[in-house]
């Protein structure tokens, strides 16, 4: 079992930055690839970014490329999402997830999910 806890969300003005953290319990964190998803009100959950177990491969949805950076520190059982140049359309609840089948865009490939952290970007 892996439990994931997100933090770092909040209210920020457009153009600002936030860094989300996802701390995992358990000793097998480094066995999983990690992903970030988001869900805006009335919208389906969408893929944002993913990182392989060793951090060597990353993948982003087009709308965040060049603005968001995913990273991980296996020694701290933590994944991060650095979000820069935030836009109002980035407003959503952000979820981290851990998966074992490296097909990062599809939510069904993730085994564990956090509870989410709210990110609100004002214009």
Chain-wise SSE layout:
Blueprint: E1 4-7, E2 10-13, E3 18-24, E4 33-39, E5 46-51, E6 58-60, E7 68-73, E8 78-83, E9 92-99, E10 110-113, E11 117-122
Parallel strand pairs: 2-11
Antiparallel strand pairs: 1-3, 3-8, 4-5, 4-9, 5-6, 7-8, 9-10, 9-11
Largest β-sheet summary: 7 strands, mixed
Structural class: mainly beta
Gyration radius over CA: 13 Å
Percent strand: over 45%
Total number of helical segments? 0
The portion of residues assigned to helices is under 10%
| Shape label | globular
Q: How would you spell out the order of helices and strands? A: EEEEEEEEEEE
Low-confidence stretches: none
End-to-end C-alpha gap: 40 Å
Annotation, overall tally of beta strands: 11
Kindly report the average pLDDT value.
Answer: 96
> What kind of assembly state do the chains in view correspond to?
single chain
């Amino acid at each position: 079992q892996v439990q994931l806890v997100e933090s770092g969300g909040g209210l920020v003005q457009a153009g600002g930055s936030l860094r989300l953290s996802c701390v995992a319990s358990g000793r097998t964190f480094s066995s999983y690839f990690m992903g970030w998803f988001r869900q805006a009100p009335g919208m389906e959950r969408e893929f944002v970014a993913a990182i392989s177990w060793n951090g060597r491969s990353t993948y982003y949805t087009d709308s965040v490329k060049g603005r968001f950076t995913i990273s991980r520190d296996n020694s701290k059982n933590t994944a991060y999402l650095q979000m820069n140049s935030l836009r109002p359309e980035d407003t959503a609840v952000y979820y981290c997830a851990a998966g074992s089948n490296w097909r990062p865009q599809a939510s069904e490939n993730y085994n564990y999910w956090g509870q989410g952290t709210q990110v609100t970007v004002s214009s």
